[in-house]
Write a structure and sequence with these properties.
A three-stranded mixed β-sheet has the order 1-2-3. By secondary structure, it is of the alpha+beta class. The chain has four helices and three strands. Helix 2 packs across helix 4.
Length: 113
């Protein structure tokens, strides 16, 4: 799935080369690409062992409520990548959340364990 529009724009503004692709798991994945492929061949790519699932506080609450949260954690764990990460955003001032903030913090703590 593609990350929210703001992150690619921030990376591009800082000169970070990026390519948007649909992922089966996670929002961000780092890929090493061969610099000098043999003539007539496309550059080979190797996915690095880090995948990031980015969640706003509201999305975390909704995914906990509807069961996607457990399923996403399971898929991240089963991805074969050694370093699955959740990037959890603090709620904005006055942001309406689908679950109480202590419940969201408990979900985040459970993910760390």
């Amino acid at each position: 799935r593609s990350p929210s529009g703001g992150v690619p724009a921030l990376l591009r503004a800082r000169g970070v080369p990026l390519l948007l692709r649909r992922l089966h798991v996670g929002d961000f994945l780092w890929v090493a690409r061969e610099k000098d492929p043999p003539t007539g061949h496309a550059p080979r790519e190797l996915a690095l062992d880090v995948v990031v699932e980015r969640k706003s506080a509201a999305d975390l609450g909704n995914s906990v409520r509807d069961g996607r949260y457990r399923e996403q954690k399971f898929r991240l764990r089963r991805s074969g990548l050694r370093c699955p990460l959740y990037l959890l955003e603090e709620p904005g001032e006055g942001e309406r959340l689908p679950l109480p903030l202590p419940t969201l913090r408990q979900a985040a703590a459970n993910t760390q364990v």
